Each structure stands twice: as structure tokens, then as C-alpha cells.
Amino acid sequence: MNVTAAYRYGIKPLTFAACATPAALMLLGAFDRGPMNLGADPVNRLIHACGITALNLLLITLLVTPLRQITGMNHLIRVRRMLGLFAFFYALMHFTVYLWLDQGLDLKAVAADILKRPYITVGFTALLMLIPLAVTSTNAMMRKLGRRWQKLHRLIYVLTALGIWHFYWQVKKDIREPLLYLGMFLVLMGWRLWHRQRIKAKSAPATVPERT
User: Fold this and answer.
1) Which is nearest to 137 in space by CA: 79, 84, 63?
2) Domain containing residue 20
3) Under a CB-based contact definition with an 8 Å cutoff, are residues 91 and 54 in contact?
4) 10-residue averages of pLDDT along the chain (212 residues)
5) Which of 8, 69, 86, 178 has its CA 20 to 30 A from that of 171?
6) Interatomic CA distance for residues 140 and 68, integer angstroms
């Protein structure tokens, strides 16, 4: 089996299954009365689980490029789109559970929350920024947008930072977990800056000393 077939019939299905597992567990927890039960406050538990899963997948999506550059496994790029789309799915579910189960589809109350509660403003902004990335994730849109596609999809850096900020503001006392996410994000961004500078240094023409 060649590399392309291995990714198509092996890595991609496994990636899909791994990304879908949190949703399956949440669905089971919503109906289970045993150890999978969501507890005394299932709505907040679901909101938190969807948000954390979206944030995890955003960071994993950002991890693909460094892994590809370090290992030389360029075919890793084939799963990046799926990871990003699942991140959008869980972010959308995060907002949908809040809108439907927490606010009872009261759009006025939701709008008031977005305007008055800064952490919801930040989170909603990140969700809005994810929408054009999901819509333009197809090969056809990549060809149509050309270089603009790459510029547009750099929004993932900003919206991931906003997602972490949203998480940090939501936590009232123990900020260790959002700070851990911030640390991982800074490492991933630091790698990108270092690698870019390294490529520039390699491509720069060598200077020839002047003769005296």
C-alpha cells in the first residue's frame, strides 16, 4: 500500500473516528444514567466539553505544520482540513448548546449577553471568524482564491488566541488550564516564527567580503 492509499484508507478514517469520539461520548452522556452521565448540570457540562474539544482541535490543527516540517511527513497535511472542520463543528455546537439549551433560543437574551459579557463577545467573535475558514476549506475554493486563501486562513492564529482568551475569562479561580493552552499556543507560534526566520536566513545571498 502506497502512502496516498494509507492515508485515504487508514489515517483519514482513524482521524475522523478520533474527532467524532467526543461527540459520541457527549451524546451517550446525555442519555446515560450510569458512569457516562453528565452530572447535575448537564447543559454547562456540554457547553464546556464542546468548547474544550474545539480548542483542542484548533491546537492540533496548528500542530500539523510543525510536525510536517520536523518529520518530513508532508502527507500529514491531508488531515489538517478534517481537523479544522471538526474544530468548527465543536465550536458551533458550543454556541448551539448555549443558545438552545441554556438560553432557550431567546435571541434577545443572547444578543444582550454578547454585547454585555466580554468573554462571550470574544468567543462569539472567534466563532464568526471560523465560518469563512470552514466555507473556503474545499479544493475548489483554494483554487479560486489562490494566494488570498492562505492569507484568509491565517485567521486561525487570531481566532485560536481569542478562543483561549474566552476560556481564560470564563474561568473564575483556577486559571492553570487556560494558561496551559496559552503556553501550547505560544510554542506553536514561536516555532513558526523561528522556522520562517531560518528559511529566510538560508535563502539570503551570502555576502562576499570586499578586497582591500
Assistant:
1) 84
2) 3-189
3) yes
4) 73 92 84 57 87 96 93 85 95 95 90 93 95 92 89 94 94 88 96 88 62 46
5) 86
6) 24
Nearest to 11, CA basis, from 77, 90, 59: 77
Cα(34)–Cα(25) distance, integer angstroms:
13
Question: Has residue 128 been placed in a domain?
Answer: yes
Please count the structural domains in the chain. Answer: 1
Long-range contacts formed by 174-181: CB under 8 A, 24+ apart: 181/55, 181/59
Q: Measured between alpha carbons, how far is 127 from 134 in angstroms, rounded to an integer?
A: 11
Distance CA 46, CA 202 (A): 48
Asked if the structure places residue 17 within a domain, the reply is yes
| Residue 166, domain member (yes or no) | yes
pLDDT of res. 34: 46
